[in-house]
Amino acid sequence: MRVYLVVVDTLADWEIGYLTAELHSRRFFADPSRDFQLLKAGLTRDAVTSMGGVTHTPDMAIGDIRLDDNDLLLLPGADIWQSARARPALELARDALDQGHQVAAICGATIGLASIGALNARRHTSNDLGWLKAACPEYCGEHLYRKEPAVRGANLITATGLAPLEFSYEVLKMLKVWRPATAKAWYRLHKTRQERWYHELVASMSDAPADPA
């Protein structure tokens, strides 16, 4: 399984911080030894700079991505998603969705998807419906818009830029690299900061499923 993180200039660091930390470290994976890779894909192979000034050097260009079953294409927020140079990544995402592959997009990336028609027939959210319609006059998916922090459909996750935690939770559930109890406890711990969820998180890691008879 592979997660392809599309890295672009002005990438919004905070919107993917939970995901990159947990997927890279594997610290809560149900099986830390499983075949899994987090790969950075750029519009080109050139290094890019995030909003926070962090330099990301792509492992590959997006043209080299070959999505298999269970892989996921991850689009973070950025200021460039409505520019012509971002269109190849958006077209890749739209085609991936049409082919049944998994895609997750947050904040500005949802605007990019709307601009090429990828949200017209799929349940989704964004930063705000009015803003989405104003930014994308050709968008006609209003009947499928949900005013929620994060929305998961069959193979698409979208989120407002104000909900990186909810976005990460939905992505982690979709990937199924954690046990359900681990994902629930992790999310509740970060959302509520209550001690009980820390203990449930620890317990979820020790409750290995019984070996099949």
Q: What attributes does this structure have?
A:
213 residues, alpha/beta, Rossmann fold, two-stranded antiparallel ribbon, 7 helices, 9 strands, 36% helix, 16% strand
CATH 2nd-level architecture of the largest domain:
3-Layer(aba) Sandwich
CATH topology label of the largest domain: Rossmann fold
Low-confidence stretches: none
Described by the principal axes of the CA atoms, the overall outline is: globular
- Helix/strand-derived category reads alpha/beta
Provide the residue-averaged pLDDT: 95
> How many discrete domains?
2
For the secondary structure, the number of strands is: 9
Distance between the termini: 27 Å
Estimated share of beta-strand residues: 15-25%
Strand order of the largest sheet: 5-2-1-6-7-9-8
User: What oligomeric state do these chains adopt?
Assistant: single chain
Can you identify the CATH superfamily of the largest domain?
Class I glutamine amidotransferase (GATase) domain
Topology summary:
Blueprint: E1 2-7, H1 13-25, E2 37-42, E3 48-49, E4 55-56, E5 60-61, E6 72-75, H2 87-98, E7 102-106, H3 108-115, H4 129-135, E8 150-152, E9 156-159, H5 164-175, H6 180-192, H7 195-206
Helix pairs in contact: 1-5, 5-6, 6-7
